[in-house]
Design a protein that fits this description.
This protein is α/β, with parallel strands linked by helices and 461 residues long. The protein is built from 13 helices and 18 strands. It has a single domain, classed as Alkaline Phosphatase, subunit A, CATH 3.40.720. The radius of gyration is 22 Å and the shape is globular.
Length: 461
């Protein structure tokens, strides 16, 4: 078998991923939608109906912020260092002690200071070390198959819990991950609102977030009236009512985002203080870029917007940061990206705690898998799914815990192996969703939200 070429940018499968077009819970041509758009919605938006089964649970958390580190995050240089292992395993970094007496890599001094507020998961078990397949599994809880397309966790949360205010229940910053799947067999109405713009970049402006300059208020209202007339005629012609309801939801959501100053304010950074930006590490940089300059990473701004969104009622926010596919020179990859990550994690946890939001917000740091215990001949680490690390905080999860452990080299779980399905099941539980509940795919086929998952009580306070 031909081996994939190793480069600093990552393996071929990771470099070549392309963004899938997703239906936006936003504006289509300033409230104009073509028949083609409607037909695509009809084709893509098959509804799922809830079975009678499923136990009503008390929600411990209202929202989730998922910070995803695509490419496969190196746990040895982060949450699970191996200081007693040989150098080819432990790598080139030392450790820093936490308030709990445990250690993190010395790349995480700020996170070490707030370790008493989070849980480090050191024994997570995945299924396959492939970027696309592992990312899909992480976001849906199911292996990818050619038979059924499963919905993302955030879409399930949107479907089960609905909106909590004016904003969409599911927002992706800056966009959803291209390997993460979509809404699967549930309606496209439960897909993400994608910003289409990076809050950490110059000229940040949410895509399709304002009425075009050439459209006056009167003209905008006339378009709304025209849409209502067309929709009424479609109903009279007995067009699928589920499709029309989905379209109506898109329109109402778009109109809210265009006309509500409160909704628009949630996406902005103008009201944030300089102290908050510093808390999240806005000015923290890594290595010099190709232009021989240091560049802020933008993660601070992304997480501040995420916090503002859950504060305003958004149920689930996904944030992507970095490129961690370090087959070559893991040390360089670490030094470039981890300083900003360390500050941002500590900043968000501290900010949520200070605002009284940590108990009601789950903050979850994920990657599709980890890296191999042994550094390869190119100074990098390769894909490894059998044992890796996550971080989780808030929402009723324990504080100050290092859950599970890997063995002496980090190759396999040494204690309390944590299946990904069980972790997702437990997060659903904290949100008040019974993950044993069945949804009907294609109108007749019952499918559990998480198949054979179980509650991990050792993670909960």
């Amino acid at each position: 078998m031909k081996q994939q070429q190793n480069t600093r940018k990552g393996c071929t499968g990771f470099r070549k991923m392309s963004r899938r077009d997703a239906l936006q819970a936003g504006v289509f041509g300033a409230m104009g939608l073509s028949l083609g758009d409607m037909l695509r919605l009809e084709a893509a938006g098959s509804d799922a109906f809830t079975q009678a089964s499923g136990t009503k649970k008390e929600a411990k958390a209202l929202s989730v912020i998922q910070l995803h580190l695509p490419g496969g995050f190196q746990q040895q240089e982060a949450f699970d260092p191996k200081p007693e292992a040989p150098v080819e395993i432990r790598g080139s970094f030392g450790v820093t002690k936490t308030k709990t007496g445990d250690v993190l890599s010395d790349n995480f001094p700020e996170t070490a200071k707030i370790a008493d507020k989070v849980t480090i998961l050191r024994s997570l078990v995945g299924r396959v070390p492939d970027h696309g397949l592992a990312t899909y599994h992480l976001f849906t809880g199911y292996p990818k198959t050619a038979v059924i397309d499963y919905p993302q966790m955030a879409s399930i949360v949107s479907h089960e819990l609905g909106k909590r205010g004016e904003l969409p229940p599911y927002v992706a910053i800056p966009n959803k991950h291209s390997f993460s799947g979509g809404t699967g067999f549930i309606s496209s109405a439960f897909g993400p609102f994608e910003l289409g713009s990076d809050p950490g970049a110059r000229g940040y402006q949410v895509r399709d977030f304002s009425i075009p300059n050439n459209v006056t208020t009167d003209r905008f209202q006339r378009r709304l009236s025209a849409r209502e007339i067309i929709e009424q005629r479609l109903r009279e012609q007995q067009v699928d009512p589920n499709t029309l309801e989905t379209m109506d939801d898109f329109y109402k959501q778009a109109q809210t985002l265009l006309t509500s100053s409160q909704a628009q304010a949630a996406f902005k950074l103008d009201e944030e203080s300089e102290a908050t930006f510093q808390l999240y590490g806005r000015d923290v940089v890594g290595l010099k870029g190709p232009d021989n300059r240091y560049h802020p990473k933008g993660l601070a701004e992304r997480l501040i917007v995420a916090r503002r969104l859950v504060e305003s009622g958004v149920r689930f926010v996904t944030v992507n940061y970095g490129s961690w596919d370090c087959h070559v020179d893991v040390q360089k990859n670490t030094l470039d990206q981890m300083p900003a990550l360390d500050h941002a994690i500590a900043g968000l946890v501290s900010d949520l705690d200070q605002r009284g939001m940590l108990d009601s917000t789950i903050f979850w740091v994920t990657s599709e898998f980890g890296r191999t215990p042994k550094v390869n001949r190119d100074g990098g680490r390769d894909h490894h799914a059998r044992c890796y690390s996550n971080l989780i905080a808030g929402g009723g999860f324990t504080r100050g815990q290092f859950y599970g452990s890997s063995d002496a080299t980090g190759a396999e779980p040494g204690r309390d192996a944590l299946l990904l399905e069980d972790l997702l099941f437990t997060i659903y539980h904290q949100l008040g969703i019974d993950a044993n509940k069945e949804l009907l795919a294609f109108g007749t086929r019952p499918i559990e939200i998480i198949k054979d998952g179980k509650l991990v009580e050792g993670l909960l306070s």
